[in-house]
Amino acid sequence: MTDPTVAPVLLIALPIVAAAVVLLAGLRWPRSGWPISLVALVLEGGLAAWLASAVFGDSGRLVHELGAYGRPGENEFAVGIELVADALSATMVGLIALIALSVLAVTRRAGPRGVPFYAAYLMLIGGLMGVSLTGDVFNLFVFLEITGIATYTLVASNRSAPAAVAALKYLIVGTTGASLYLLGVGYLLMATGTLNMADLAATLAGEPSFVDGPMYTDPLVLASFAFIATGLFVKAAIFPLHTWQPGAYDEAPDGVTVAISALVSTIGAYAFLRISLSVFTPAFFEATPIVATVIVTVASVSVVAGSALAVMQSRIKRTFAYSSVSQFGLVVLATGIAVHPDAGASAAEAALIGAVIHLVGHAVVKGGLFTAAMGLALDSDARTIDDLAGLGRQSPVLSAAMALLGLTLVGVPPAVGFLGKWYIVIGAMNADLWPVAVVILLSTVLTLAYVARLFEQLYFTPAPSGDEAGAEAPADTSDDHAMAADGGNSADDGTEEHLSDPTPGAPFGVVAVAVGAAILAILLGFAGAEFADALEPFVTEVLGQ
Amino acid sequence: MTEDPTEGTEANGETSSREANDEPSSTDSQLPTETDAMGPGGTYVESQVIMTTVRVVAPFTFTYGLFLTFHGGGSPGGGFQGGAVVGTTILMIAFAFGIEPTRDWLSNRTVVGLASGGVLAFALIGLLPLLVGGRFLEHAVYSDEFGLYHGKKYALEGVEIVGIAPIVSAIVIGLFFTIAAGFVGQGAAWQSSGPGSYPEHDLDGGDEE
Amino acid sequence: MSPGAIELVLFAFVLLTALATAAFRDVLAAIIVFAAYSLGMAIYYAVLLAPDVAMTEAAIGAGVTTLLLLLTIAKTVRPGRDEIFESIHWSGLLVVGAFTTVILVTVTSFPEIGASDAPIVSNPEVSQYYIEEAYHDTGVENAVTAVLAGYRGFDTFGEAVVVFAAGVATMVVLHTEVFTRD
Amino acid sequence: MTPLVDVLTSRYAYVLFALLLGIGLYMIVSSQNLVKKVIGLNLFQTALFLFFIASAYLAGGQAPIVHHGGKEATYVSPLPQVIVLTAIVVGIAVTAVALALLVRIYAEYGTLEEDVLREVRSDD
To answer: Is ipTM beyond 0.90?
Structure first.
């Protein structure tokens, strides 16, 4: 079993098996959910690292032919399902594994807990892994639905009544979106007779002998793209299909919000990126120039509208939720630029690298922001931006993490938020899409507006009443947390140390993850150039240069 | 009835597991026969005709479900259809004999065991070929490497019989009983006040935000 | 291929029951009509030579779904309103009308029903391969089962997981840790 | 006009698919009752299933139960049928979760009518 091609299947099967084990073990040991999840997700992390080292190392693109039905002949179609790990999916897998562990640390003390919760959580991870690794458009639907069901469940795991309403709304909108995706898959199947991504790309290009030529302008293929894109835009919460998202983020338990904000919409945006690049391929957009223009327009609207709506919110979680509408708009925008017929080789390359970096960067930053918000809510019951008044002194570590991550969100160098935007703007300008650069600038200003409000409340507004234990040895604590964050979110986070934690509200795990996210956001900013280099072969391959 | 959702979630795991362990009965179940767990409206009627019919029919539908499961290879049918029919048989019994007695008769261990066991069995059938360098769900390994007679066919049918069918039947049953038990949470206060009664929203007034 | 008499009757039946499902204000009436609709669909699938799907739609679509819907309204109260039919929601109708028109336009570029040169049927490397090789590759005669549990067994794994997830989901949603009772 | 009618009669099942898709979507968008919204979601999905099944159909073909090799007869395509089987099961799973949520929403708010629910929630 030293063949890395087994890693993709293990990455998907392990959390699912663990979910079944959790439920079974829960019959006897009701508290076994957390330890079993921990073991499974640590192993998952190891597998993700193994996969990444193989993909970014010498192996390149890995294919696991499930059932070994393979391809009947040279250059013939796959009759089974294939799992495919390339640089993009390996990146997603690493991100999911890292955040999955962090969320486990975050929810350790603050909840939610319980046997069914951990089973649902593990299923979410299994679903996300499946979406990241599959090379088959229908299989992607199945895993998208596992992810969906697990997410609706986790939102509803909150005790509050509005959580159930938010979950139902999410379910109805999300399922309609998934059905539209399936409709698009049906049109593709009708036009080509296959579901394998690579074979679809070849058929659309007119390669097999039984098609007459390129099919890019076939009405079925165009309609298919429209349905698939709409369905995935619902999942990624692109304006105006984002309506489910703020409620779901706001009403979900805080720990769950961290997971879904960092991973679930991210996987929708990933799926869009994947299908655009690996199924329809840039040649499709070349043949139908209007499509890329529509994508860029829709995404631009989302970028601006999301930021504008974020500025108008008073609740912290809703502000960050709308901010995600804008940020995923940016990822889709970058995808649109990368496949835009007007974009030259260098512009497309920059935009695509920007899309991937922003996708990863946003997950880390937004997950960190929601963790910090959760910590502040536990510390001082802060739910609205006004509640943050004076917390810069009361909860210095969490406030600093939130402030730092907020700056990253704006795009202040050298953090990862800057890097992603930088590549995207370079791509837009090289492609002569000046309005897009203006849109990004406008959204940056709006982002600055709401982040500035956070700053103002945290550091420049006095707390409404007297702050008692405000300035208690801030230097010491930050040292502690920084050390813990370096060591990752290890097993004992938030157990014994909690007692000695100087901030009695937020458990250690929450603080550590918030600080860790802030540090990681900065480190990723520095490591971005190397990451871009590592992506280079993948980018040139999918862009077909 | 917590003001703050976070506070609620903080206690969430603890309280719900304690509730489940120490006091498993829902509000409805304390009155097993008078108002059935079908809830407001009390739709359960003890009918000798229905009970006898179900007693006669149930073994047949159960067998038919198993037949569908086992014969998916050569004719229409398979684990999903068979599992659903087996699960529905139990629901039929619940309709005839009352949900509460049926719930008592079917232990949670059985249902969870079937569901989780099905997932594990499916995964195991899929993963075993990896041990000898095969691929996930490579059924041919069972005949070629493990030397089982008709191994690839039995592995494929095994997926349906020990994987899918138990999961589907257990979950159909589980869904039915969890939904029938209803939600024992904040709203339960008014729910127990009698079948068909309308809630007083003021009870929860000002809870949120 | 033009529709025969059976197809026309089914067409009308399915369409009418669907419209009635949408039109009835009373939820119980809508559920019962919807069950009839599902059965009509199941027969339609059988006519279109999909016996496995017909059986599944009958057992799961018409059977389990209806049972669960009935259970749900038994747990909740039906709206006690006087109107028999829903009033028409014009803005919704407009949006949906536009959507349906778009779909109908795409339908004109579909291959004819039953055409032997439609890629989905004729693709020599996928569908035809299944027909020709399924028995050899998997040892079962029902090509649907062969594809379901063999070639696309991983989809089926995911599908089984979805069912399992739904079970876990109801426990989480309804805040219980047991399906039945300890 | 006649060519269009011809086109549509030879694709009658797809016409039904389009209409059902519309009815389902209308129920999702317009129904005030949440149970009916969920039924609409189901209707929307069954329309998709009809699309797949019709696309697999082959005039003069047989159901894909192939007796040893299958060279003697023509068969409908098994692939879309398998997709529908999977999708039906996924659909019921989602429906079940939706219904559990409905039971809980009713327990919390005492209504499943969207307009009443909105009122109750804004009162809180």
So the answer is: no
